[in-house]
């Protein structure tokens, strides 16, 4: 008997909703690969193995900027995650995809899933899934901004239709690398992207003077090193995600389509995705774009929740 699954497969993380069970899997979209190119672990387990054997294992992600960059790794990762979510079952998958990724990338994702004993694949636009997951009305027009690891996508939705979308390819992963580059250049501190992502979660954009401790290796000695910097420095380094989101929203707001022959308006602006968890980002965006932004409840789960509503 086939199991119906809602799949949110992102650059940073993967969430799986199984019909009748809810969200059963949340894992980083990353694999641990040995020196011969074999995948030896996926998700959280991959991060743990990388920590125990840093010299012989590398971490790889199958997507970059929300586009598949390694098809074989993508299929392997999806196969492992789907089997964890629903062992020994044929699967029917409903997957949310960004509006801006294009048909070719959707076809790659579909083929990767069909390689994983999936009998049927259906696509849903991620903004519509997120809207369902937020359980908000779009009768007066609503803007959904999905701040992800690989891209930031802002959509204007009204009466169930996506009327305008802007996609910025670059997000949390780009911000993490930007932090690494800044710390190396400014302080001689070598950090991993995982270290940078963890530091970013400590940000409070309402308190730019707050000091944050960062750890890594000294670029000269190779020894462990810990330094403290102000939040304002980290915010500047993380600009690809923070300013990228406000610029993306502003681009949509400045060019709303006409609706029913009249100038369109947006009743609310909602932030979803892992990037919406940054403390103070709603206040920052509110000031930057001149419209109140609110963070959805459990924003990183919004798309998976919406897929769940669709398949139940």
Tell me the CATH architecture of the largest domain: 2-Layer Sandwich
Largest sheet: 5 strands, mixed
By CATH, the topology of the largest domain is Nucleotidyltransferase, domain 5
How many distinct beta strands? 20
Mean pLDDT: 91
Return the string of H and E elements.
EEEEEHEEEHEHEHEEEHEHEEHHEEEHEH
Quick recap:
Helix content is 35%, strand content 32%.
How would you characterize this protein structure?
- By secondary structure, this protein is α+β, with helices and mostly antiparallel strands.
- It has 3 domains: 3-30 and 62-125 and 303-311, Nucleotidyltransferase, domain 5; 129-169 and 240-300, Nucleotidyltransferase, domain 5; 172-237, ATPase, substrate binding domain, subdomain 4 (Actin, Chain A, domain 4, Alpha-Beta Complex).
- It has helices at 44-52, 71-85, 103-114, 126-134, 172-187, 193-200, 231-237, 239-253, 281-289, 302-311; strands at 3-9, 13-18, 22-28, 31-33, 39-42, 58-60, 63-64, 67-68, 91-97, 118-125, 142-147, 152-158, 161-168, 189-190, 211-218, 224-230, 258-259, 262-263, 268-272, 293-295.
- The chain has a 5-stranded mixed beta sheet with strand order 3-2-1-9-10, sandwiched between helices. It has a 5-stranded mixed beta sheet with strand order 13-12-11-19-20, with helices on both faces. Strands 5-4-6 form a 3-stranded antiparallel beta sheet, sandwiched between helices.
- The two termini are 16 Å apart.
- The model has no long low-confidence stretch (mean pLDDT 91).
């Amino acid at each position: 008997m086939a199991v119906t699954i809602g799949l949110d497969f992102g650059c940073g993380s993967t969430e799986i909703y199984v019909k009748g069970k809810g969200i059963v899997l949340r894992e980083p979209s990353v694999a641990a690969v040995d020196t011969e190119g074999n995948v030896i672990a996926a998700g959280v387990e991959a991060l743990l193995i990388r920590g125990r054997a840093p010299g012989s294992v590398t971490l790889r992600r199958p997507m970059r900027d929300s586009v598949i960059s390694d098809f074989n790794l993508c299929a392997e990762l999806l196969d492992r995650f789907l089997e964890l979510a629903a062992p020994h079952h044929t699967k029917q998958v409903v997957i949310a995809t960004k509006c801006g990724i294009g048909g070719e990338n959707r076809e790659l994702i579909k083929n990767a899933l069909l390689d994983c004993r999936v009998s049927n694949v259906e696509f849903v636009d991620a903004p519509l899934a997120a809207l369902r997951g937020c359980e908000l009305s779009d009768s007066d027009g609503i803007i959904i901004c999905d701040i992800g690891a690989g891209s930031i996508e802002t959509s204007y939705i009204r009466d169930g239709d996506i009327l305008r979308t802007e996609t910025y390819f670059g997000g949390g992963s780009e911000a993490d690398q930007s932090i690494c580059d800044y710390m190396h250049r400014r302080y001689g501190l070598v950090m991993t992207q995982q270290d940078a992502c963890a530091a970013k979660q400590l940000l409070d954009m309402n308190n730019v003077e707050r000091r944050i401790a960062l750890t890594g290796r000294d670029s000269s000695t190779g020894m462990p090193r810990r330094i403290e910097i102000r939040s304002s420095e980290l915010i500047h380094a993380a600009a690809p995600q923070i300013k990228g989101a406000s610029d993306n929203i502003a681009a949509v707001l400045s060019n709303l389509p006409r609706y029913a022959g009249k100038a369109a308006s947006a009743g609310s602006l909602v932030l979803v995705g892992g990037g919406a968890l940054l403390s103070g980002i709603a206040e920052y965006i509110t000031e930057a774009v001149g419209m109140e932004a609110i963070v959805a409840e459990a924003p990183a789960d919004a798309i998976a929740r919406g897929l769940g509503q669709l398949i139940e």
